[in-house]
Amino acid sequence: MSKEHPLSPEKVEKVFLSLAAAMLLVFLLALFYSAYAMGMHLPGRDGEINPTMVRETPPFDEPGLKQIEPGRYEAVFLGMAWAFQPREIRIPAGAEVTFITTATDVIHGFHIEGTRVNLMMIPGQIGRATYTFTEPGEHLIICHEYCGAGHHLMYATVIVE
Ligand SMILES: [Cu+2]
After folding, report:
1. How far apart are CA 79 and CA 85, in angstroms?
2. What is the pTM of this model?
3. For residue 84, how far is its CA from the centre of ligand 1 (angstroms)?
4. How far apart are the CA of 158 and the centre of ligand 1, in A?
5. 82 CA distance to ligand 1 centroid (A)?
6. pLDDT in tens, 95-148
7. What are 3-33's pLDDT values in tens digits?
8. Environment class of residue 141 by beta-carbon count within 10 Å: exposed (0-12), middle (13-18) or buried (19+)?
9. How far away, in angstroms, is 19 Cα from ligand 1 center?
């Protein structure tokens, strides 16, 4: 008498359960792929400093570009209302640059156009990101965190020669 319908509630439930499990698996795979194959991470935060002593604390007592070995550089950047220090760095094409950043007053952003370098400049916290500039050209560094009336004036430049 009771002829089983092809879409019984049990079957529907099984289908939905397997779909949900498959989606979880896909999301997990996407997460691992982005983290390990594409190297995407949360903005680096290695270390903290006293936010009232930024200009006395190495390496922030000497903002700017420093060559650490052939082809490798360190660029120390400060964010303040409303400028970056330094305003410009020049590097040869192929250079690997590690950006080390912090802020002297309020929270700023540090995004280098055309790259995946994107840090928060937070007073008391050190941001770090490494990028290799392969092509000659100019990259604008912009503040992407609204920091007051002069926010839109905040920029610096990376010149790859
Ligand atoms: Cu800003």
Report:
1. 7
2. 0.72
3. 10
4. 18
5. 7
6. 999 999 999 999 999 999 999 999 999 998 998 899 999 999 999 999 999 999
7. 666 788 999 999 999 999 999 999 999 999 9
8. buried
9. 44
* Ion ligand 1: residues, Cβ under 5 Å: 143, 147, 151, 154
Q: Let me know whether 30 and 63 are in one domain.
A: no
Query: Could you tell me which of 50, 61, 58 has the C-alpha nearest to residue 85?
Result: 61
Q: Which domain CATH number covers 70? A: 2.60.40.420
The two structure tokens encoding residue 46: 């290695």
Q: Is residue 47 part of a domain?
A: no
φ/ψ (deg, to 5) at 45? -145, 75
Quote the number of domains for the chain.
2
How confident is residue 45, by pLDDT bands cut at 50, 70 and 90? low
Residue 3 has a pLDDT of 62
pLDDT in tens, 78-109: 999 999 999 999 999 999 999 999 999 999 99
Under 8 Å between Cβ of 49 and 124: yes
Q: If DSSP states are collapsed to H, E and C, what string results for 74-137?
A: EEEEEEECCEEECCEEEECCCEEEEEEEEECCCCEEEEECCCCCEEEECCCECEEEEEEECCCE
